[in-house]
Amino acid sequence: MHLSPFPFSTTDFSSIEPTIHKGDSGQAEWRTLFRDEVRVRQVKYSPGYLADHWCSKGHILFCVEGSMETELKDGRKFMLTQGMIYTVGDDSDAHRSYSKDGCTLFIVD
Predict the structure, then answer these.
(1) Would you say the pTM of this structure is higher than 0.85?
(2) Whole-angstrom Cα distance, residue 78 to residue 105?
(3) DSSP secondary structure string for all residues of 2-71
(4) Do residues 40 and 107 lie in contact, with contact meaning Cβ atoms separated by under 8 Å?
(5) Confidence check: pLDDT of 54 > 90
(6) pLDDT tens, position by position, 28-37
(7) Domains with residue ranges and CATH for the chain
């Protein structure tokens, strides 16, 4: 990842209009900030959220609140709880998310 020389700034995610992304069940609410080619998001999964696709995009993902399970396409599953991160590179391990009780994430990709 290359971070271009954009100026220092602060962001209040509550001031960014959310977009809603339906899952196979539940929904994800994204508040997205773009800095050139870098996408920074606050994402909230509703209780019972299950992604509707396998994702191959790389992420640095931090669980701010709640918990979620990430399933890799090869069948492995990993639980992420508050304070944990996961990292995955582009086209490395296809993955999808599930959150039984909902969660809030901070994602950079």
Answers:
(1) yes
(2) 15
(3) ----PPP----GGGSPPEEEE-SBSEEEEEEEEETTEEEEEEEEPTTEE-SS-B---EEEEEEEEEEEEE
(4) yes
(5) yes
(6) 999 999 988 8
(7) 18-108 (2.60.120.10)
